[in-house]
Design goal:
Low-confidence stretches: 4-18
Number of domains: 2
Oligomer: single chain
Number of helices: 8
Shape: elongated
CATH class of the largest domain: Alpha Beta
Structural class: alpha+beta
Distance between the termini: 17 Å
């Protein structure tokens, strides 16, 4: 009986008003999107567009941050209209900011769920010199269904950067300049807030100064970023981190693709401790972080070599063809407003007969000011009865002769989102 009761509670949860909204966030390097400099693509722009569409549809992210968008400001509107919104008009994009090259960043987002509240661009280091590549900052808020009732606004910030590539001392210091500028920005403008930082970091070890600045910021330790999978180490050419490598999707270099197979962890999504712990109504979903196309069995080989245990073959092929990086993904839960629960307590107003025989009689001490939905489930999780109680009513009688004897779960849900669940017995 215990296991079937748990099953019924699980099924019932599908009908109850969710207390949180789950959002997925994907970071992806688009590898010189719609540009031929400084390399030549193996495939036509149209073919690559189709591959990006295949990958995007497979992932269906709510927020999509990208690097190497290209230098043309029309690329973001093109992706929106020709790839992301083929079957809807939900996706919007941020304003274009130029990094001074074809390595610009961008964010696309599902406008039915979130709003771009503000946008900023970090382009100077701490000495007021221009960064080699700027950092894009997007402040978002969740579109709570109860805004009209006065729901609090839940904010979070998504940041993306493409740090300087290369292994020279100059490259190392340019990456450090960028992360120093970012952490200083957080300390001054995003103190103790919900922040996600993603991008192509081009670091091969967690001991590089640029990465240490992110995870061990001595000026303000409470601003430190966290690796959701806690896999810090010397990632480059290290098979111990095969399950987290994001570059390169090909074993042999070709066109714009670098070679060497999957042996570097360049692409990341890091989170603030506020998101890790859920202290500001935004919480990382445990075990949701993943590298798309990475099954841990393709170290130093192509992503579509043999069988890929992480994605279907069509996706592995698209990842192989489109970019030399793999996307990374995580999920967050946004706490919804509980407006209505305290103001309209069904628990205190509803009365009903229990056990029941041929009738279920529901009475309200005060007449309803809104419609209320009723569902009854049996212990296998199936809905056996559903109906509604109309605003203005004080009593409703339902015929329950057809119900078999036994234990059921009854759910009442108001239009404002309040839910109560009761166990009832049919004799």
């Amino acid at each position: 009986m215990k296991s079937t009761f748990i099953l019924a509670l699980t099924a019932l949860s599908l009908f109850l008003s969710a207390q949180s909204e789950r959002l997925s966030i994907v970071q992806y390097n688009l590898m010189w999107f719609r540009t031929s400099a400084p390399c030549t693509h193996n495939q036509s722009a149209t073919a690559r567009d189709g591959e990006l569409e295949t990958i995007f549809n497979y992932l269906s992210p709510d927020i999509f941050i990208v690097n190497e968008l290209g230098a043309n400001p029309s690329n973001a509107p093109f992706i929106n209209s020709s790839i992301l919104n083929k079957n809807s008009n939900r996706y919007h994009h941020a304003s274009f900011t130029s990094n001074g090259s074809s390595l610009s960043n961008m964010m696309f987002y599902d406008s039915s769920k979130v709003v771009l509240y503000d946008q900023d661009f970090i382009e100077k280091d701490l000495s007021n010199n221009s960064l080699v590549r700027g950092i894009d900052v997007y402040k978002m808020y969740y579109k709570d269904p109860k805004f009209s009732l006065g729901a609090d606004t839940v904010y979070f910030t998504v940041i993306t950067a493409h740090l300087k590539a290369g292994s020279t001392n100059a490259d190392v210091f340019q990456r450090l300049d960028a992360t120093e500028a970012l952490m200083d920005y957080l300390e001054n403008y995003l103190h103790d807030e919900n922040v996600i930082f993603g991008g192509d970091f081009n670091v091969k070890t967690n001991s590089e100064p640029a990465f240490l600045k992110l995870v061990n910021y001595s000026n303000a330790p409470n601003e430190n970023f966290l690796d959701p999978v806690n896999q810090l180490g010397a990632w480059g050419s290290n098979s111990n981190y095969a399950a987290y490598h994001t570059q390169s999707t090909r074993s042999a270099a070709s066109g714009c693709h670098s070679g060497g197979g999957l042996d570097d962890r360049f692409d990341f999504l890091l989170i603030s401790d506020e998101i890790k712990n859920g202290t500001n109504k935004v919480k990382y979903v445990p075990n949701s972080y993943s590298t798309i196309g990475q099954d841990g069995n393709h170290y130093n080989s192509s992503v579509n070599s043999g069988t890929n245990g992480n994605v279907p073959s069509t996706i592995a092929d698209a990842l192989y063809d489109f970019s030399d990086h793999l996307p990374v993904r995580l999920e967050i839960d946004i706490t919804k407003s509980n407006i209505g629960l305290a103001e309209k307590p069904l628990e205190e107003r509803v009365e009903y007969n229990n056990p029941i025989q041929d009738q279920l009689r529901i009475n309200f001490k005060i007449e309803l000011s809104e419609n209320v939905e009723i569902k009854i489930l049996n212990l296998t999780g199936s809905v056996v009865f559903e109906g509604s109680l109309e605003a203005g009513s004080k009593e409703k009688i339902y015929n329950t002769q057809a119900l078999a004897k036994g234990i059921y779960l009854m759910s009442l849900r108001s239009m404002s989102g309040e839910v109560i669940t009761k166990k009832i017995i049919k004799k």
